[in-house]
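Two quick folds needed for the group meeting slides. Do the first one here.
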Amino acid sequence: MSAPKKPESVAVIIPVHNGRAMIDVQLDALAAQDYSGSFEVIVADNGSTDGLAEYLTGHPRTEELALRRVDASDRPGAAHARNVGARSTSAQFLAFCDGDDRVHSNWLSELVRVAAEHDAVTGTAEIESINSELVQSWRQMPDRHEGYSLYRFLPVGLSGSFGIWREAFEQVGGWDETFTRGGEDSDMCLRIQLAGMSFGHSPDAQIAYRQRDTLAGIWQQSVMCGEGDVRLYAEYRGYGMPRRSQLALADTVAYLILRNPLLPQFISRVPTGRWLFHAGNLWGRIVGSVRHRVYYL
């Protein structure tokens, strides 16, 4: 694909399920973008029951953001909602973010700038500006210049900071809606690259990523991430995605034993939330390995 230097039309698509309480944070951030062109904002409502539809009707940002809601309630899942949002517009460039995060003011302009030389592009996330110090300690983000990658495999990115030209989106068939337990963002990035298309990374297209702020929430998220990793291995081992090493497993087990929060704090020296994230991720890989009949611990 030979991408134009600047798209003629842009759509920002936000999949949302019961996000009324937080959606204004993201909409306000989108209204503050420094992008020089025009763009529309599409909220793909994935079966919300919190009054989101009524709240968005006549929303103060409607005209400013060309804001509209589309009904994506016929099938659960963020991947489905993103596809519904993409089908509802003819925009040449599609940008995706999430309803509970907050994009930085140069997010869209940076995605579009880097996408001028790529078929798809991913941005980065920071956790300092939107989470408490305690919640920040539960999960670490990679250096924004390095980006994300699967275990010794290809680079991937976040669905909450992602841009793609419509031609490339249609060529790969959009988001895979069968990924319901995490991993759909990595899957999209892998399919793009394995189809021979160019995948870029923009360290300056940042979002403020809202982490789960309860121990139950961080556990559920980490289990889902672990299951998603196994699903990805089951799908892409034939393309060269390697199995995790036994050394990595031993390191994880040792960490969980030696850093157990039931031990005195001066011994464990890690926040309970961080320990739960690693424990949940391992449990998710165990569950996923059984479900997908592969070994990926």
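Then this one, please, same format:
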Amino acid sequence: MNICGNKVILRALEPSDMPYLREMINDPEMERMVIGWSFPVSEKQQMDWYNRVISDNKNFRFAIMYEDMFVGVSTLTQIDWKNRSADHGIKLCNDAPKGVGIGTDSVYATMKYAFEELQLNRLYGSILEYNIASQKLYAKCGWKVEGNYRQSVFKNNAYHDEWPVAILRDEYFEWKENRGK
């Protein structure tokens, strides 16, 4: 089953997507903008990762397709089926078209699937203090900043604040109802 937004389609990852994911992981600028860290990843390591995660029912990773082109990945990870929550993240390829709403529609499609199909109650994530694009994206999609983890992420030889963000099921439905107004 594909997950349809208004502009994007979220689909299961395929082996043919691995070069795009490896390129994103190995991109220093993208690495600078996300929480966490990674070492350089080889083609074999990427395929080994894919083979490990493909059948995981607590961590879903979706290819973002726009006009039949792979433009990024959207995730629901650390799914807690009892407490009905999951961590959400999104990464867009550097060459993904800008200013056409791919990010917003990808977050919307992921929220719609999480809240309307999986019946989750809460989605959460984290944003680096200097990632203005992510701050604007999640605010536009109805997410709220829940605090500030001071100097919790070390990147580029400095410590940076991490902002936990989240949206609840009720907030999603309210946002969805008012979205076009």
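Slide caption for protein two: The mean pLDDT is 94.
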